[in-house]
Amino acid sequence: MNAAFAKSSDYVGHAVAAIARLIREQDLKPGDRLPAETVLSSQLQVSRTVVREALRSLAALSLLELGAGKRPTVAKLDDEALCLMIDHGVMIDQIDIQQIYDARRTIEVRTAALAALRRTDAEAIQIIAHATAMAQDLLVPDKVMEHDIAFHLAVARASRNPLFALILGAFQNVTRETWPIGWRSRSSDAERQAMNALHLELAEAIAAGNPQSAAAMMERHFDSSLKALVAAGII
Amino acid sequence: MNAAFAKSSDYVGHAVAAIARLIREQDLKPGDRLPAETVLSSQLQVSRTVVREALRSLAALSLLELGAGKRPTVAKLDDEALCLMIDHGVMIDQIDIQQIYDARRTIEVRTAALAALRRTDAEAIQIIAHATAMAQDLLVPDKVMEHDIAFHLAVARASRNPLFALILGAFQNVTRETWPIGWRSRSSDAERQAMNALHLELAEAIAAGNPQSAAAMMERHFDSSLKALVAAGII
DNA sequence: TCCGCAAACCTGTCCTACAGGTCTAGGAAA
DNA sequence: TTTCCTAGACCTGTAGGACAGGTTTGCGGA
């Protein structure tokens, strides 16, 4: 299927491809169990070692879930694997903070609009709750940060497009590292309260089902964050 | 670092975390070599089996590159791993085509604008070349498709944000499967020529360095594609 | 100083073994 | 008859040894 997994005499690569094909052809869904390692081993005509390494590869991408005593199980995607990838990309200077910021902005303006259109009432309440909590814990940066991150993820989930939630979730680690910089760059309490107020207005636009307003608010949020970072000389 | 890799007595998970930490703490860059498996094995106090499975996990995410006789080397991210993940998400109905379409639209409107601002002359020429080639091979759908995909990826690369190229690249496989549907849904040659004309106009807007126009063109492109698919009853 | 080669090094694969977790068939109890 | 429970079968996680063949390195010669 893919070049990197297809070098001739790359047994593990072939096994990965074969197992991925197996999932596809048998139309397996999350929770469904694959054949045992020894069975795969004899079916694919490779050692159990090779099968195990192939299974690990797929588990790393969270296509599979492995567990002692349990047969390999088809899994749902989650953002952990992607998170590791993004972190690595930043580490090796393949991606910089500004690029992540731009990607977030691009996507989050959309998730805000979609969330306004599609959020359930429960989601609206949750989003407002995070925005409110940010204002309440104004003196405890760690709490503000966690609510901020949770706020944005809640919006992403409310957009009803799991791709957005997946991608934005993958930025979490990076955000956790850069967030305090943004916080410190807002030197006065007034600025910090203004940021929180913006979150709350955004939450209310989403709750009110107003996509234009939600998108505009999200744009303003990113504009002001970016301005704060630039002012602090970070970007 | 991550929950899924931290279950106590999950040796492989610990090894993955330790190796990822190693890369981070030593600030290794693509091409740099890690210690040999046996060295890692004794440093981490686990068997070579465990080390190998950990290395495979990281290689699956393309954080590492493995090769017979070669020590593990730090790698650049590429879209293959992400591609497998997206394909799987579609397979298990976690993601549907429309959601991918919306993600693409959201991101590609941005890449079009950025490409107009940042493209090099060589990139502008290449983008125009793909658009031209689409029109030339109008009777050979496969060729049109490949140029279409290459066109969009070239725009993504010209945006100078590797995240966008990474994400859009991951949609390639899905696009290859759905593209022919869109093609067939444009029943007349006139419609198909109109689509190609739109690509060419977009390419020219990017070459002319006009971001507003490029973004608007990209929006029109997605609107008309979506309309064609809806008309065909696909979405 | 440069080149080439042999030895040292390293990975890919296979095998065996066993501890301990999980599942299931079938018997016991209600 | 149905439900519950358990013993045994099944399965994975980890360890360690072996060897083929690819890669790197440092030595010796030109």
From TrEMBL, chains A, B:
Pfam families: FCD, GntR. Residues 9-77 form the HTH gntR-type domain. PROSITE patterns: HTH_GNTR (PS50949). GO terms for molecular function: DNA binding. This is DNA-binding FadR family transcriptional regulator. Gene3D superfamilies: GntR ligand-binding domain-like, Winged helix-like DNA-binding domain superfamily/Winged helix DNA-binding domain. The keyword DNA-binding applies. Keywords: DNA-binding, Transcription, Transcription regulation.
